[in-house]
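Holo model, hypoxanthine. Inputs:
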Amino acid sequence: MLEKIVRTAEFLNTKGIKDPEAGIILGTGLGGLTTEIDIQVEIPYQEIPDFPVSTVQGHEGKLIFGDFGGKKVIAMKGRFHYYEGYGSEQVTFPIRVMKELGIRALFLSNAAGGVNPSFRIGDIMLLEDHICLVDNPLIGRNDDRIGPRFPDMSVPYDKQLIEKAEAIAADLGIPVRKGVYLSTTGPTFETPAEYRFFRIIGADAVGMSTVPEVITARHMNVPVFAVSIITDLGVDGKIEYTTHESVQQAAEHSEEKMTRIMKELISSM
Ligand code: HPA
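Output:
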């Protein structure tokens, strides 16, 4: 595994991707942040050795390197999910490669259903914690050169980055929420009973991504910041027919605000 990671990182080095300070992973309908990157290198996933290929509409499948907020960043436009049939090694591989390239922090976005009854569609939620209801991506043999067998998870999301993001959002006049993200495999959205259950066990939002990537980053001691855009509501009386398109549309609506926060936050690193 480590050999494969190093080989892919070296390949990206030869393509001009060198010393990124931050890694960025963009969720459904949230790829527009890349238009704010002063792009130096852009590579489709299928041209990268050992990289999986993204199969979901709204996830383009490109690795982008350039300046964002005055920092060198590497951004994944399109991520990999369990529901596509990928195993944990494939879902987590890009994060391992980003760390090998030198990122100092990982920034993620996703589209999520809100189960907190005070949430509204379009809300921006900073992740404070998560509940992992998918296979832990670290199941299997551990490579001690990469990270410990039993990683600590007492601080999954970096407190300083959350505080800074809150201050930035306040300055920009953008209201934000904070909460707990729960990950399912998908691809189904939830039944009303499932949404109710997730609320009871402590979730504020539910989605199909992010947690495996966060666990992988924390395994390597990379600080993490993550944001959910609430695209639909899993709250009794407010549940509506949900489609991938309605999720994309709602995400795109809040994308600009999320991008402004991310840009300032990365700039302040
Ligand atoms: N459930 C799961 N994943 C999601 C949802 C949801 O309601 N909305 C966007 N992604």
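The chain has a mean pLDDT of 93. The longest strand covers residues 105-114.
Archived with the compound record.
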